[in-house]
Amino acid sequence: MQAQDYKQPKQGKPPVVNVKKPQIFSLSNGLKVMVVEDHKLPRVTFNLTIDNPPYAEKDKKGVDDLTSSLMGNGSVKISKDDFNEELDFLGANVNFNSHGAYANSLSKYAGRVLELMSFGTLYPNFSQEELDKEKAKMRESLKSQEKSAPAISNRVVDVLSFGKEHPMGEYITLQTIDNVSLADIQHYYNAYFVPENAYLVIIGDVKFNEVKKSVETLFGKWQKRNTTVASYPEPANVGALEINFVNVPTASQTEISVVNTVHLKMNAPDFFPAVIATHILGGGYNSNLNMNLREANGWTYGANSSMGVGKYIDKLRSSSSVRVNATDSAVVEFVKEIKKMRTEKVSDQLLTDVKAGFIGRFVMNFEKPQSIARYALNTEIEELPKDFYENYIKTITAVTADDVLKAANKYFLIDNSRIIIIGNAEVVLPGLKKLNIPIHYFDKFGSPITEAQLQVAQ
C-alpha cells in the first residue's frame, strides 16, 4: 500500500456520559453535604472544602500556611501517634489543611474514618512545639529560594499583577513568619475554619440515610460563626505594554512571564472558548508558544500559558525559562503569538483536535471519585447550571473558531500586559532596550527602583 493511501480516521460522535448527581442536605450550622452513592467498589471518599473569600494576612503572612501544616498534627480527641497508627491499621488515608480535609478508605471502615477526620478538623491540638518545627521548615525553604530566579519570578508576578496589599499579591518573608504566634494560629482557625462556607462531598459505597446520620452526629456540633468579608481594590492592568525587569546576576536562564489580570467565571458564556484559547496558546506540547520557542527555535525546554478561573480575580500568565542570549528574541515571539491569537482564527483541524482532547480527558476522569467530587463542588461554589457537566461535551463541541477569536480578544490583553523578566541585567538588558518597549525596574520583592539601583538592589 502506498503512503498516500493512508487516511486519518474520522472522528466519531461525542460519547454520552452519565454524570452522577448528588443527594444534598444542609446542617443548621451551614455545612452543605453532597452524597453520591456508588456501589461498584467497596470504597468511599470524603472531601471537606471551606470556600472562604480572599483574606489579606498582612504582617503575619504565613499564618494560613502554618495552620495548614499544623492541621492533623494531633487532636484533643486522639493523639497524633494513635491517630496515625489507627489509619495504618485501617489502610485509610486522611489529609488536612486550613481549607478542609480529604479521606478515603474501605467502605466498611467509613464510619470510623469520617469520625477521625472530624477529630482532626473540629478538635485540632495546636502546640508550640509543632509550630516551631513548621516555622523552621518554612524558614529553610525561604532561604533555599533566595536566589532562585523561578521563585523570584513567581513572587514578583503576583506582586505586580495584584499589588502587595491584595491577598493575591502578598508573599511570605522571614519576618512575617516570625510574627506568627500560636495565638495567631488559634485565632485564624477560629475565625476562618467555619461551617458557613463549608461543603462536604461524600462519594462511594455508602447509604445516604446512614451517612446522613453520621454527618449530623459528628459535624452537627461544629459551631456556627460568620467570617469577616474584607474588600480590596480591584487590581488594574497597565495602560500599555511594558517590561518589568528584575536583575538576578546569578540566573542561568531568563524567566519571562507575560501577564494580565482576568476575571473568568465558570458560569460565563465564554468560559469554554477562553479555556480553549488558552490551551491553544500554551496549554500543551503542541501549543503555539511551545512549538515556536522550543521546537522551532530551541530557546527553552518548554513554554506554557495558564488562566485562573473562578469567583475571584486571577491572571493569564504565559511564561518560559529561556536561554539568556535569546531573551529579547523570545520576548518578540511571545508578543507575536499572543497577538496572533487575537487576529487570526484557529484552523478547523486544530480546533477539532483540541476539543477532542478536552472531551477525552473529561470522559476518562468523570468516573473518578475525585472528579465527581470536584464537579459537585464546582456546581455549588461556582453557581453553575445543574446540567453544566451533563452538557459539558455538547458545549465544548459547539465552540467555533469565531468564539475562540472573540475570547482571545477579550482576555489576552497584550496591549495592557506586563512582560515580567527575571535575569542577568548585564547580559540581557542591551537587547531588551532595542525592542522599544518601556522598561521599569524592580527589586526581587517587586518594589520599584531605578536602573542605577539594579546592582545595589541585589
UniProtKB/TrEMBL annotation:
Q: What region holds the Peptidase M16 C-terminal domain?
A: 179-356
> Which GO molecular function annotations are given, in alphabetical order?
metal ion binding
Entries under InterPro entries matching the protein: Metalloenz_LuxS/M16 (IPR011249), MPP/UQCRC_Complex (IPR050361), Peptidase_M16_C (IPR007863)
| A Pfam family it matches | Peptidase_M16_C
Protein known as: Peptidase M16
- Protein source organism: Flavobacterium faecale
